[in-house]
Specification:
Beta-Lactamase, single chain, 7 helices, 4-stranded antiparallel beta sheet, about 60% helix, alpha+beta
Length: about 290
């Protein structure tokens, strides 16, 4: 096995090990970065909904509350306002979703799906849970969701949700008496659920990963070629010449020229030593011939 072949085998083994390690680490890092990007988008959407809720309670509802006796305005309900605001956003970003999933909702559109009901029950069973972040497969592909509990912390909410007799007649006229009642103070009645698609960030992460790995392979190929040229020019060729010269000298042919001693590297030092050995051997052979 030649020196170049040994060198190339070692280089290839080292590259494959490094390529595999770099691929594993970079893929994990890119996937995690994509997931964190999705989580940031989901949190931003959730905070937007919370801001709409707060704005409705603090600046809209106080001005319209007196009209409840004449007409019920759903726009004064924080959940309705947040859902409507996000609905306008979803006209452009259809894959994104926001829902105020409630176990016993006044508005039927807030009725939870089975997996959303499971989230609400988790919040109800463990009050220490304030957020659930997880992934699921939806009709649009892989999605990530963030859920926060909806808890009745404001006693004013019970005016519309305790018993039908306490609710405004204008509200009962729209929604009836069958749903949205029986809530209790500090009870978890639902969950704010934001769902964000993961396909685009994950696809971008895969594209970045592929580009990185191809670039890494191209760099290795370039380094491989350059190292082989340097190995051939600086080491293999001089050593092969020495080997051929040593072959001829061993048969008594001293007509081969001496090596040019350039530089101070190991090959130049080896060439200088070889020249001295050649001259010494030639003189020794001459002395033997003169006797």
């Amino acid at each position: 096995m030649g020196l170049r072949l040994k060198f190339n085998l070692v280089l290839i083994v080292v590259f494959l090990a490094g390529f595999a390690a770099a691929g594993f680490v970079s893929r994990q890092l890119l996937q995690e970065n994509a997931r964190q990007e999705v989580i940031r988008d989901a949190r931003l959407m959730l905070e937007a909904a919370i801001s709409v809720r707060t704005y409705t309670v603090e600046q809209i509802r106080p001005h319209l509350i007196k009209q409840l006796d004449d007409v019920f305005l759903p726009q004064t309900v924080p959940a309705f306002a947040a859902t409507e605001a996000i609905a306008h956003l979803r006209k452009k970003y259809k894959e994104y979703n926001y829902k105020e999933a409630t176990l016993n909702p006044t508005n039927p559109r807030n009725r939870p799906a089975d997996w959303e009901a499971d989230l609400v029950n988790q919040f109800r069973s463990d009050g220490a849970i304030k957020e659930i972040v997880n992934e699921r497969m939806s009709s649009t592909g892989r999605s990530l969701f963030i859920a926060h509990p909806i808890q009745v912390t404001n006693p004013a909410c019970l005016q519309c949700h305790s018993v039908p007799s306490a609710a405004p007649a204008t509200m009962l006229k729209i929604y009836g008496e069958a749903n949205g009642f029986g809530w209790k103070h500090n009870e978890v009645v639902g969950a704010q659920v934001v769902t964000v698609p993961m396909e685009v960030p994950l696809r971008n992460a895969e594209r970045a990963f592929t580009t990185f790995m191809l670039s890494l392979a191209a760099v290795f190929l370039a380094v491989f070629v350059v190292l082989n040229i340097m190995l051939s020019w600086l080491i293999v060729r001089p050593i092969r010449r020495m080997s051929e010269s040593a072959d001829k000298i061993s048969t008594g042919d001293f007509g081969v020229p001496e090596f040019t001693e350039k530089g101070k590297d190991e090959v130049a030092i080896l060439g200088s030593s070889f020249n001295r050995m050649r001259r010494s051997l030639e003189k020794a052979m001459q002395m033997i011939g003169d006797q």
